[in-house]
Design goal:
Layout lengths: L4 E4 L19 E5 L1 E4 L2 E4 L3 E3 L9 E8 L5 E7 L3 E4 L6 E2 L3 E2 L2 E4 L2 E3 L6 E4 L6 E4 L2 E3 L5 E5 L10 E5 L11 E4 L1 E4 L2 E5 L8 E3 L2 E5 L8 E5 L8 E2 L2 E2 L2 E8 L4 E6 L3 E5 L2 E3 L5 E5 L10 E5 L11 E4 L1 E4 L2 E5 L8 E3 L2 E7 L6 E2 L3 E6 L5 E3 L5 E5 L10 E5 L11 E4 L2 E4 L2 E5 L8 E3 L5 E5 L8 E5 L19 E5 L4 E6 L2 E6 L5 E3 L8 E2 L9 E4 L5 E4 L7 E4 L17 E5 L6 E8 L2 E6 L2 E7 L6 E8 L9 E2 L6 E3 L4 E4 L3 E3 L7 H7 L9 E5 L4 E6 L9 E6 L5 E5 L4 E3 L9 E3 L5 E4 L12 E9 L7 E7 L2 E5 L2 E8 L6 E9 L6 E7 L1 E8 L5 E4 ...
Antiparallel strand pairs: 1-80, 2-72, 3-4, 5-71, 6-7, 7-8, 8-9, 10-46, 11-38, 12-13, 12-37, 13-27, 14-22, 15-16, 15-21, 16-20, 17-18, 17-22, 19-20, 23-26, 23-38, 24-25, 26-27, 28-36, 29-30, 29-35, 30-34, 31-32, 31-36, 33-34, 39-40, 39-45, 40-44, 41-42, 41-46, 43-44, 47-48, 49-50, 50-51, 51-52, ...
Length: 845
């Protein structure tokens, strides 16, 4: 009677996917939620939802870091938005704003004053033909302007006029109305003859009138957020029009209407102001307008106050009162802060204008047309509406996306409810904030004509014939920290900076190149951009420690243009160590070495055919950067070196990968397990739904299925990986044993190998799973074959309960394969060396 014997299944660590048949004999062949640690397979740890706040869009970029005090922070980029986290957990929307209107070098203030002089250039309102009539020896000029709509004291601006009567009328002028079709202005010099003319004249009208409101958005990099110590970013009201494009403005947040507030004392310039609960201290500035005379004086303009009590303060007027009295009529009062110094800001600020009844509805429809001159918006842009009143049964407030663009002055959004009537409305205090335009969620194809290719999404500088295809890559977002803050670079967009301590929106870095592919910070503190100004093979970098200084000079270390030649586009870059940086094109890897010489960096090609498959298809690890090219996996150890054992998995990956979705592939280093995650997009999937894990200790590889679009690990503290799903959720991995509260399926299969010596038919009698640890039941399935591995001849499945030492089997054959699997809540296992009990056919245990 043949005796049974014990056969240990000593299989090497890692899964082999590129071999079959005899080539795969004695190897693990498939897995799900498995990793190898110290050579042994074990169930991968679980995950749970990390943040309660959901993000919008497909996440395609993430960076996590810690402050010098260990506080966790992260940035997240999707195709729709940019997020930051000030607590390391919840994402907040920090998407930069886009402004339809801007103003450059716009603010001037005197020391000690509160009233700002504001200049905003306006556009041409129309043209007049030979409108000027002069009188010899007079500075008065009559202007023929049909239905001008002006009132005396209003301003009009003229440009491109030709000389008439010996003078040229260009610039800004106050008008004196003659009638509905003409007014007079005063020229700088007297005419030398009587004449009519001026040619074709462009005229401009003030954009604002007294009482108009504007919102100003300062930029930390564009003239700062203050002028003379005055904070710029706020709402203002126009208190006077000083020229066709210059105004006096005051903050509108501390405005009130007072009735008969002034009390005078005969012979004194000190005036007491009654202003209930004014909330101001001595030294604040009060501005009054609209007052009538009281006690022989008329308080008007700016005054420094002296607080009397919570409801009163005093001001000093220019002359003493002629009588003791109380009054002043209905007075508009503003409070503001005095400037600490005379100043003019430089740079550009964003300006948002208030709209009056901008919305148009149709009864029974949710579509709402928004009427806004020169809005500059695109389909799917996000915007936020403020200040609208309810009309036609709807209230528009909060964030919306544009569903269609009617023309340059109108677009359409959808209300949450249908309108009850047709018509226009919304009130007179509506303002809209636009966010930067989103990018594509997926790679898309358009038929474009000659020279229509948009940079950053495919065929840069296309010179294709009409209707040739142009591919647009999905928008990814490069993120890197700058100390405790961060920079964001959406593919094909500009460079933005986020001040994490302020927690507000990211802001444009105005002097940086535009139309970028990628950005990263080097160890030497030079901010680099790739694809500078729309050229896909040009890199640039800012001066050291000066992320807004991009123009090379003799006294800085900036470089505005360095070109590489291998490949069709720069893809990504990263700092390595000791002044070494790697920069990839789609076909090559370059060493970018800091030298400190006049050229700052030396850039040389390190390897051809070792480029990067996508902008996130690399990660930094203790052994150097690891990356995925278009057909191999590499790591950097002083040269581009193929990752050990990659032939066991690489061809299988590249055979099934969707080549139209290369740019969605991404890698992440798992510091807890000293491993690299590689997520990629298989055909017919659309998103990165398959992964491999590369163990950097033994270089074993294991595959699995899980949809994750990006991820990050904090530099310090808790280093459990954060990863994002397609459902707006951020997940914390290496947390617990389950899949966000659900059982997490895990299995591991080995390829067919001999049952016994393979020469004769054998019977498998039992299995000792030899678990190193086990929680919950594990299923073991065995299949047997004759000499042809494709034809199963027998099979059996047994449940391995906790503590099982030998489970009975009843199968026979020449060869066998096996599968360990578990799908139970809270399940876990780690396998040492399973042992099969077998014997030649002829007897049964």
């Amino acid at each position: 009677m043949p005796e049974s014997k014990l056969i240990p299944l000593k299989l090497p660590a890692g899964v082999v996917k590129t071999r079959s048949g005899e080539g795969a004999k004695g190897r693990w062949s498939d897995a799900q939620n498995i990793r190898f640690m110290d050579g042994n397979p074990e169930k991968r740890a679980g995950h749970e939802q990390y943040a309660t706040t959901l993000f919008q869009g497909r996440a395609r970029g993430m960076r996590a870091w810690n402050t010098v005090k260990g506080k966790p922070l992260y940035g997240l980029g999707t195709h729709l938005k940019i997020y930051g986290s000030t607590d390391g957990i919840e994402p907040i929307d920090i998407t930069p704003l886009r402004f339809p209107a801007t103003a450059t070098d716009a603010f001037t203030i005197a020391s000690g004053a509160a009233t700002l002089s504001y200049k905003e250039a306006n556009t041409k309102a129309g043209t007049l033909t030979n409108p000027f009539t002069t009188t010899n020896g007079s500075t008065t000029v009559t202007v023929a302007h049909t239905a001008h709509g002006r009132t005396t004291g209003n301003f009009v601006g003229f440009a491109n006029a030709t000389a008439v009567g010996g003078i040229t009328i260009n610039g800004s002028y106050a008008v004196t109305v003659v009638n509905a079709n003409s007014y007079t202005i005063t020229a700088a010099s007297a005419a030398t003859s009587a004449a009519t003319g001026g040619g074709t004249v462009d005229y401009r009208l003030p954009k604002y009138s007294v009482g108009s409101k504007i919102r100003v958005y300062g930029n930390s990099w564009q003239g700062g957020t203050q002028v003379g110590g005055i904070t710029l970013s706020r709402e203002y009201e126009v208190i006077s029009v000083d020229s066709v494009d210059t105004y006096k403005i005051l903050p509108n947040d501390k405005k009130a209407t007072l009735t008969a507030p002034f009390a005078t004392t005969s012979g004194q310039a000190l005036v007491t102001v009654t202003d209930a609960a004014h909330g101001q201290d001595t030294g604040a500035i009060a501005y009054f307008s609209g007052a009538t005379a009281v006690g022989g004086v008329t308080p008007a303009g700016e005054y420094k106050i002296t607080k009397v009590d919570a409801d009163k303060y005093t001001i000093t007027v220019a002359s003493a009162a002629s009588s003791t009295a109380t009054g002043g009529g209905t007075v508009t009062r503003y409070f503001a802060t005095a400037a600490t110094a005379a100043a003019t800001n430089t740079g550009t600020v964003g300006v948002v204008n208030y709209l009056t009844d901008p919305f148009t509805t149709s009864a029974g429809q949710t579509a709402v047309t928004v009427n806004m001159t020169a809005h500059g918006a695109k389909y799917n842009d996000a915007l936020t509406i403020f200040g609208a009143t309810t009309f036609n049964g709807i209230t528009l407030s909060g964030e919306y996306r544009i569903v269609s663009v009617t023309n340059e002055n109108a677009f359409v959004i959808n209300s949450a409810t249908a309108a009850s009537a047709s018509g226009s409305g919304g009130g007179s205090a509506v303002y809209i904030e636009f966010q930067i335009s989103p990018g594509p969620a997926d790679r898309i194809l358009e038929k474009r004509g000659f020279g229509k290719g948009s940079f950053g999404f495919g065929a840069f500088g296309s010179t294709t014939l009409a209707l040739d295809p142009i591919y647009y890559d999905p928008r990814s977002v490069a993120i890197d920290n700058v100390g405790e803050d961060a920079i964001f670079c959406p593919l094909g967009d500009n460079l933005y900076y986020w001040d994490s301590s302020a927690g507000g929106r990211a802001e444009l870095i105005p002097n940086a190149p535009t139309q970028l592919r990628y950005a990263f910070m080097t160890e030497e503190r030079h901010l680099h951009v790739l694809g500078a100004n729309g050229d896909p093979l040009v890199m640039a970098w800012a001066s050291q420690d000066a992320i807004n200084d991009w123009t090379p000079t003799d006294t800085n270390t900036a470089n505005s243009s360095r070109r590489v030649r291998d490949g069709s586009a720069l893809v990504a870059g990263t700092s390595v160590a000791n002044g070494v940086n790697l920069i990839w094109t789609d076909t090559a890897v370059y060493v970018h070495q800091y030298t400190g010489s006049q050229f700052i960096y030396d850039t040389r090609r390190a390897a051809s055919n070792a480029g990067l498959i996508g902008p996130r298809a690399f990660c930094n690890t203790p052994i150097g950067p690891v990356w995925m090219s278009q057909n191999k996996f590499y790591y950097w150890n002083g040269s581009a070196t193929e990752v050990p054992n990659s032939p066991e998995m690489a061809d299988w990956i590249f055979d099934q990968i969707d080549k139209t979705q290369w740019s969605k592939c991404w890698l992440m280093y798992d510091a807890i397990n000293d491993s690299v995650y590689v997520y990629y997009v298989p055909r017919n999937s659309g998103e990165p739904s398959q992964y491999v894990i590369i163990n950097l200790v033994d270089f074993s590889w294991v595959n699995g299925t899980e949809t994750r679009t990006t991820g990050a690990v904090f530099d310090a503290g808790d280093k459990k990986p954060l990863m994002t799903g397609t459902n707006g959720k951020i997940y914390l991995h290496e947390q617990g044993l389950d899949a966000d509260g659900e059982p997490m399926e895990a299995y591991l299969e080995y390829a067919p190998l001999d049952l016994g010596n393979g020469a004769v038919w054998h019977e498998a009698l039992g299995i000792d799973p030899n678990f190193k640890r086990q929680t919950g039941d594990v299923e073991f399935s065995i299949s047997t074959y004759d000499r042809n591995n494709l034809n199963e001849v027998d099979s059996d499945t047994v449940t391995l309960e906790e503590g099982t030492e030998m489970a009975d089997l009843r199968v026979s054959g020449r060869r066998h394969s096996g599968r360990f699997s578990q799908t139970v809540l809270g399940g876990d296992f780690s396998i040492d060396t399973p042992i099969l009990e077998v014997k030649p056919m002829g007897s049964r245990r």
